[in-house]
User: Fold this.
Amino acid sequence: MTRYSIFSIARNAMNYHKDWERVWRSPMPKPEYDAVIVGAGGHGLATAYYLAKEHKMANIAVVEKGWLGGGNTGRNTTVIRSNYLQDASIAIYELSRSLYENLSRELNYNVMFSPRGLIMLCQTEHELRALKRTAHANRLAGLDCRMISRAEAKKLVPLMNVEPTCRYPVLGAYYQPRGGTARHDAVAWGYARGADALGVDIIQNCEVTGIRRDGGRVAGVETAKGFIRTRKIAVVTAGHTSVIMQMAGVRMPIESVCLQALVSEPIKPVIDCVIMANTVHGYISQSDKGELVIGGGADPYNNYSQRGSFPALQHTVTALVETFPFISRLKMLRLWGGIVDMTGDRSPILSLTDVEGLYVNCGWGTGGFKSIPGSGFVFADTIANGRPHRVAEPFSLNRFTEGRLIDESVAAAVAH
Amino acid sequence: MLTITCPVCGAEGDETDFHYGHEAHMARPATSDPDHISNERQRDYLFMRRNPKGLHFERWRCDRGCGKWFHAARDTVTMEFKAFYGITEKPPLELMQEARGEWADYFATKPPEGTA
Assistant:
């Protein structure tokens, strides 16, 4: 792998940039691997990278139905934050956020992490109270955050309408100064490049069609490119987790729904932080290109089509127009939908299963992008050692049997 | 946008006129067999979902019409509704035969009572 640096750019510039080598190989699958990861999204690739780097398991493959990073990794609003309510959630999301801080250097690939600050608006008395509680919980856990007044929020986002006569007036806000965004594709590409350099085979256009079991343990995966023997299978397929896990005879506590986002035409800089308005189901940030990136609530019904409904979009945009009147005349350029995997308590699943050698990492729902590095880090440790990593342990499948939920669904920390 | 017809009052509308009630034909263990409720059965009832890619059986409520709950069969890839039927009814026979995966297992082993 060529290391990227100012010298490599200069050297290649001499030759009209004709000598850049391919960023990753496109190998055919070997007959057998030590572990096979299903799904080359951010989480799957990060898992592969940390397996190879931290646990020296280089004889592994990542198999992907389409192209790498083409699912939810390329379909989100790139928001990174860690202000969840429960201790277990704070631990994993903050691990993830802190890994983002140094990720570009770690991968020698610019993921454009931009800790530009994240504001969560409080637009009802209940939300103000709930976010104060979250802020206290976060500070106890050592997170850098604070509550800010309406005036401070207005100072950070001068174009925001904070009039008290609004239907949903801004009463205050939660502020996480080191929250922000990153370039979503670059995260997938950076991890893919890093994993490939360490010897991981990333096999694209290779749909998994079956999981072969040998009694109580896994024997391998049937794929579009033939059978691959392995004793460890890690399923990291987000919205398609139920479908894949059913191939191994494992039921999942998941519903797949469509979450949409959209971007406006590029405009001059107007917002230099990430703003979330959970009461009205909308969040907004501005990309480096100048587009406003807008995300909203998910459709309620089960959906595998990657196309959301118009009412959900309308709801998001209508609500945002009141708080940000200047966006009312913007043209919207693109919109897209991703199939997110929702669990009952809105917390992820990082778990061993009843089938020996079968591991699952899913249920990130509407918040998968921010958790890619942390999820990959602890999941790799879980797979390598055959037991849950300390941070992953609370997120086991058993919690649904034991009633030990990690309830983020009413904690107002997530937009859903 | 989904186009939904209420089988009770005949009202037509889109998904904003109705309320989604998630997966159908789930029997609450405590109702049928209160003496034998294991943690696993309770988990299955509360959290485990078939979540098929394809034909799905689900509940909807006629919010802006009669207010009644009813059943629908819908394809989760094409979004096409295959049938609307009453809350105490089984799906049409041909749809039960068309079902795949966990729904097929369910209809094969235990014909639905029709209760929500």
